[in-house]
Amino acid sequence: xxxxSQRKVESELVFVVEEALEGGYTARxxxxxxxxxxxxxxxxxxxIREAVRCHFDKGKCPRVVQLHFVRDEQLAV
Length: 77
Description:
It is a single chain. The protein is an alpha+beta fold. The protein is elongated, with a radius of gyration of 14 Å. It starts with 11 loop residues before the first strand and ends in a 7-residue tail after the last strand.
């Protein structure tokens, strides 16, 4: 099986971003083995960029990285 960096790269990579229970944020890529975390959103943006650059070979990075924020809420009825 080809390494992720050797496969045909899609033009878009999607991360699911959630607030961590202990504070800060976690981000998990869909379809790739990329996970990172940070204390604030600015730090998370930088860590995602760094993780994507490390995961893919030079010139093989997706053109667009989208962040989808997920938040759990409970409603009393």
